[in-house]
From TrEMBL:
The keyword Transport applies. Residues 1-123 form the Globin domain. It comes from Crypturellus soui. It catalyses: Fe(II)-heme b-[protein] + nitric oxide + O2 = Fe(III)-heme b-[protein] + nitrate; Fe(III)-heme b-[protein] + nitric oxide + H2O = Fe(II)-heme b-[protein] + nitrite + 2 H(+); H2O2 + AH2 = A + 2 H2O; 2 superoxide + 2 H(+) = H2O2 + O2. Keywords: Heme, Iron, Metal-binding, Oxygen transport, Transport. This is superoxide dismutase. Belongs to the globin family. Its EC number is 1.15.1.1.
């Protein structure tokens, strides 16, 4: 999903010194750094899903993600909306036979939850666009 994200939104690569120069999707696919970042992203998503019954834990996880991306990486928050949209698109394609309307609804809610909490963290640290 990160490869598709960077192909669809090449401006997002500006935040990644290790692969911002990559244009070829096959090169992106072979990139160990890109793969490691994708694993970190999916690890965070997995942590959120595992803790959906604990709103404080979910908020804490996403606040850490949001603050790091606002303060350390200086990533525009709109990229979280774009990234989660691509993630939902790829999951729906990869699991098309099993992707029921209920699953689509659940992932759409998760996408909104992630974006809401991450942007709240941006506001908390005084992000100014």
């Amino acid at each position: 999903f990160l490869r598709r994200f960077f192909v669809n939104f090449p401006s997002a690569k500006q935040y990644f010194s290790q692969f911002k120069h990559m244009e070829d999707p096959l090169e992106m696919e072979r990139s160990l750094q890109l793969r490691k970042h994708a694993q970190r992203v999916m690890g965070a998503v997995n942590s959120v899903v595992e803790n959906l019954s604990d709103p404080e834990k979910v908020s804490s996880i996403l606040a850490l993600v949001g603050k790091a991306h606002a303060l350390k990486h200086k990533v525009e928050p709109v990229y979280f909306k774009k990234l989660t949209g691509v993630m939902l698109e790829v999951i729906a394609e990869e699991y098309a036979d099993d992707f029921t309307p209920e699953m689509h609804s659940a992932w759409t809610k998760l996408k909104a939850l992630i974006y809401t909490h991450v942007t709240a963290a941006y506001k908390e640290v005084g992000w100014a666009q």
